[in-house]
Amino acid sequence: MAEINHFEYGWITPALSYALSVLGSVLGLICAGRIRTASSAGQRAWWGILAAWAIGGTAIWTMHFMAMLGFAVSGSRIKYDVPVTVVSALLAVVAVGIGLAIVGTGRLSAVRLLAGGLFTGAGVAAMHYTGMAAMRLNGELGYDPTRVALSLLIAVVAATAALWLAMTVRRGVAIFASALVMGVAVNGMHFTGMSALSVHLHERRGEVAGAEVGSLLIPIVLLVIFGVVGLVYALLAAPTDEDRAAAAYLAARRAPAAEPVGDDSPDPVGLRARSTLARPGAQFPSRRDRPPR
Asked: Which of 38, 184, 194, 229 sits between 20 and 30 A of 4, alpha carbons compared?
């Protein structure tokens, strides 16, 4: 059995992975909050996609890959199968998106929350072990079933808590505190799953096929940067509740006063007629149309 090192570069990789998970959770929770205030189905779908990308893509999958940079096996180089790695990323985003759709359509209930948490948690666990299956090295991977089951349980609990927070948390301080908790849960699931891994090296060492970690790092970092910038821009460009209230107030100020309908109250001095003529655009009667004195 080969010796495994999960922290080859010390605490740099786990610290960066935790920071990414918190950053993605903050953006995802803010986007999920916009789902509740959206005025149309199209807007709800748009904010749901952004929330799924923030939580599934940044908080979960990018965190996983960053933590894997510190993973090393004595006696073997590690490379990655690019298509399988891409599939693992899609699994995370799609699983979170479906979970948000389950809890975000209709009234939030315990049944919806549990169903969304089970589906999303299973998807996150599938992402993790698919990402592990993308590794290419001179050996065979083995897993401890007990720790795998424990990692799956953590994934479901973490996903359920994340969905509940996404649908209930609104204030800035609460969002940040929730993101810190979500970061702990996501990293806890990852390293619990990694602790279940064992590697049995092959006696004959051959060339390992796949992409080097360094060749994948640059495009992933660029993807994270552009993704985060795009999410921040979408949040800043979207109108807030204050903007909508101000627009409604201005629209009400500009709208003409409503015409009185069916007002049969007495008007002895002609005030009603004078107020009508005083309105902008009112036509005064010509001289020949006036009644004789």
From this structure: 184
